Task: inverse folding
């Protein structure tokens, strides 16, 4: 151990060498990182050069690098697109609603599960709440359509038996957002609660014991111990959620979308697919995608900085 | 120490294995691509021994795989073609949008050896994508091969409308090169033009119960009254659930049949209204069409889910008799295996045919030859173009067409006085179960590989051998005429307009039909009309009126232009 303030020439170099020596010593373990690194290089970094298309007049034969430059033409085109504000508004609305209602849901479920004392019952509830996570959106939306169909759906069958007119639940713009939020919570709440349950197990039981001795009740313990202890976890997850605010959930929205709800359901991701692959405007749709990614990157940096200053919770 | 070394060696092997798995996972369909790379070298068909070649084939048609035989490689027809050409095809099809698939294969450079795709128009959709791919080097130029393959050469010239051939199929941008091989084209005679039988079809038992004659329903008002009667009549499907008065197949195809009263039977994007030429997006008829559809939807007369039906849900509704009236083609392939077997009394009848505002009945419009058809093209990267062209040339020969339509001589048919006659047992099996015909390899070639010269014209089925379904389809065709307009489409004149490209750029992300369908579900008629006017205004802002004026001037300069 070198005492503070004492400078030994070459010590820093020695320290670095020691690190390298250690890495070499555990090279077999480090080698296990290789597949992950290769995966990231091939599937996450190599395709990123494709964003160049957003600045090019893409030609099939010239490829991405060979196609002529178009500058910011496609970004300007998107900002002047008559659909721009509708698409952005829908994206932000759905994301914001998901954040407001969807973000606290796993936390609430985790707290509720944590309060269940009977272990078997707790496990049963946990398993039931996880299962929807493993069901694909295609299946979830098909189920929704079947249940809510105005012609053959269970709910409208009941209404029919009661002499009531059928309701086209999936085709009412005013019901679209509630259905999106409810199905999203149903599918993700159990899975999302895992991280909170893990954090809850890390809270020192002595804190609760001490609080009980001081006469704290259930609610008091929740607000004075549990939630403050969960704050870093909540903070980190919130930063992640806010950074993805422009990801309104492509699979879900794409499958639930219909002409009847298009005015409220066209989001950036669905618009990218339609303009890019369905209308063949590859450069234009790449520009929209890049616009979305750039805003998301700015958001994550901003939210992280704010969070670090306000609550001392941050990703970096 | 030794133990550690052993562990180390084992660790390295494990890591190497993991790396190998990771790397091979990245190679995608490389193996399959290799299958198409057997080099057979230069040869004239029939002059050298033919080496076996496997080629990949994509049918870029949503749901196009339904006609593929279960055993793609060893069905009798595929076996016979392999004997003659050495070619084995690996078939692939899609269940998504055609234009989406085309864009994907061209942008990613993964074009299969042979592709069949829609080539309706080069001003938008699939045609535009294929044209871009051709001019940007993704398709093989077939010009040097045409003299060697006479049947292929015939396909690129026969059964194609004059203006479509000049401006689309052989677009000036192709600079004299040939990239596309049309299929499903007629041979130039009116008899060989296929009647697609689009119309409205109503369940026979319901019409009977309401004492309505199918042919009497031929106006929009009569159609509306019929649907109201059906809604109030308490009719049930085969499961005892209420019927839906009206509906369509997947994704709203073809709701336009319910609006035939406002359909102009034309060959261009332009309409003459009160002596002025207007673009189709600007017609006042859209208001009436929109309000009519809204009336059907709001009064419970039309399937609310029609516009987001998947093919599965639409088929379920069709084959359970849930749709009292549907708009599309007669859908006999699906119905004869299902509803018509269990509930023959429900057999759908053709309504009308419907009349439009001018009093003309539902009509299929054609120019001499077709303007838009499925086309075959080859990948620019194909390793053995001769093998692909040998295959296409063979199946379009007299022998190949017989094979494609009738199968193997002696097994499926016998020749009598130069005319193929089905073997009775085989015909009965095929008529009873069309899937058997498909699995014998008899369904996919005529639909995807063969163009010009209808088999029905060359080898007409004798009256006594026609199935009841063939007769039914013919009875529909007889009532819905084909109108041939021998003119050049005014749409082509618009391409000479100096601001044409600017207009295309401005309207490329505008989808009139999508906006129109959106308006069906607006909260009020007023809001719906506003939505319609808004999209019409966007087209106006892009210069559509100026374009129509230009086209009118150009059209006045010649006497062979049709609208």
Result:
């Amino acid at each position: 151990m070198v005492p503070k303030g004492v400078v030994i020439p070459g010590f820093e170099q020695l320290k670095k060498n020691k690190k390298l020596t250690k890495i070499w010593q555990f090279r077999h373990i480090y080698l296990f990182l290789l597949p992950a690194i290769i995966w990231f290089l091939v599937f996450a970094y190599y395709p990123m050069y494709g964003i160049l298309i957003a600045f090019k007049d893409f030609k099939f034969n010239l490829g991405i690098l060979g196609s002529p430059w178009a500058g910011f033409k496609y970004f300007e085109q998107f900002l002047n697109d008559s659909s721009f504000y509708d698409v952005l508004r829908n994206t932000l609305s759905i994301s914001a609603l998901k954040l407001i209602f969807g973000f606290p849901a796993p936390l609430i479920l985790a707290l509720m599960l944590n309060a269940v004392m009977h272990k078997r019952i707790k496990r049963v509830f946990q398993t039931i709440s996880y299962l929807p996570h493993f069901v694909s959106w295609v299946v979830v939306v098909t189920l929704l359509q079947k249940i809510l169909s105005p012609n053959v759906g269970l709910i409208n069958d009941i209404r029919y038996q009661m002499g009531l007119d059928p309701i086209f639940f999936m085709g009412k713009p005013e019901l679209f957002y509630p259905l999106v939020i409810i199905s999203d919570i149903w599918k993700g709440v159990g899975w999302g609660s895992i991280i909170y349950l893990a954090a809850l197990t890390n809270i020192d039981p002595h804190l609760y014991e001490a609080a009980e001795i001081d006469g704290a009740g259930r609610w008091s313990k929740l607000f004075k111990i549990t939630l403050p202890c969960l704050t870093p976890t909540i903070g980190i997850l919130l930063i992640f959620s806010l950074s993805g605010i422009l990801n309104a959930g492509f699979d879900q929205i794409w499958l639930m979308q219909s002409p009847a709800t298009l005015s409220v359901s066209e989001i950036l991701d669905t618009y990218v697919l339609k303009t890019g692959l369905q209308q063949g405007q590859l450069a234009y749709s790449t520009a929209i995608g890049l616009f979305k990614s750039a805003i998301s990157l700015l958001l994550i940096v901003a939210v992280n900085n704010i969070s670090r200053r306000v609550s001392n919770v941050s990703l970096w | 120490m030794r133990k550690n070394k052993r562990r180390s060696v084992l660790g390295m092997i494990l890591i190497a294995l993991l790396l190998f798995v990771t790397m091979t996972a990245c190679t995608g369909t490389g193996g399959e691509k290799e299958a198409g790379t057997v080099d057979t070298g230069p040869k004239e068909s029939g002059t050298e021994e033919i080496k076996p070649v496997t080629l990949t084939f994509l049918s870029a048609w949503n749901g196009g795989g339904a006609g593929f035989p279960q055993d793609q490689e060893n069905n009798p027809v595929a076996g016979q073609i392999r004997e003659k050409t050495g070619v084995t095809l690996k078939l692939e099809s899609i269940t998504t949008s055609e234009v989406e698939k085309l864009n994907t294969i061209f942008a990613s450079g993964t074009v299969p050896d042979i592709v069949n795709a829609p080539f309706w128009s080069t001003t938008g959709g699939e045609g535009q994508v294929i044209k871009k791919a051709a001019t940007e080097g993704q398709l093989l130029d077939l010009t040097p091969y045409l003299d060697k393959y006479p049947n292929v050469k015939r396909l690129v010239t026969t059964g194609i409308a004059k203006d479509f051939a000049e401006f689309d199929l052989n677009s000036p941008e192709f600079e004299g090169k040939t990239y596309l091989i049309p299929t499903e084209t007629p041979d130039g005679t009116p008899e060989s033009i296929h009647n697609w039988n689009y119309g409205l079809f109503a369940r026979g038992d319901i019409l009977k119960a309401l004492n309505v004659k199918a042919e009497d329903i031929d106006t929009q008002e009569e159609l509306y009254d019929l649907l109201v009667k059906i809604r109030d009549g308490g009719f049930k499907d085969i499961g005892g659930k209420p019927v839906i008065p009206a509906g369509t197949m997947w994704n709203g195809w073809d709701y336009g049949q319910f609006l035939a009263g406002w359909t102009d039977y034309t060959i261009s994007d332009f309409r003459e209204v009160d002596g002025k030429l207007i673009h189709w997006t600007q017609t006042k008829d859209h208001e009436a069409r929109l309000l009519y559809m809204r009336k059907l939807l709001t009064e419970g007369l039309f399937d609310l889910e029609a516009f987001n039906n998947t093919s599965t849900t639409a088929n379920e509704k069709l084959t359970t008799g849930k749709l009292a009236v549907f708009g599309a083609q007669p859908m006999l392939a699906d119905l004869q295996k299902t509803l018509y077997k269990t509930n023959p009394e429900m057999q759908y009848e053709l309504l009308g045919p419907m009349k439009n505002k001018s009093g003309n009945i539902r009509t299929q419009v054609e120019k001499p030859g077709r303007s838009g058809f499925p086309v075959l093209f080859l990948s620019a990267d194909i390793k053995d173009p001769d093998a692909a062209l040998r295959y296409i040339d063979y199946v379009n020969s007299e022998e190949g067409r017989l094979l494609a339509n009738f199968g193997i001589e002696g097994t499926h048919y016998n020749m009598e006085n130069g005319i193929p006659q089905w073997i009775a047992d085989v015909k009965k099996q095929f008529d009873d179960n069309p899937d058997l015909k498909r699995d014998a390899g008899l369904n996919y070639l005529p639909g995807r590989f063969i163009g010009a010269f209808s088999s029905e014209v060359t080898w007409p089925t004798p009256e006594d051998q026609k199935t009841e379904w063939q007769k039914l389809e013919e009875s529909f065709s007889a009532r819905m005429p084909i109108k041939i307009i021998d003119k050049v489409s005014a749409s082509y004149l618009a391409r000479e307009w100096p601001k044409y490209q600017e207009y295309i750029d401005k309207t490329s992300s505008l989808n009139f039909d999508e906006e129109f369908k959106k308006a069906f579900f607006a909260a009020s008629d007023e809001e719906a009309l506003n939505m319609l006017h808004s999209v019409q205004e966007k087209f106006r802002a892009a210069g559509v009126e100026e374009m129509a004026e230009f086209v009118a001037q150009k059209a006045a300069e010649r006497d062979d232009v049709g609208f």
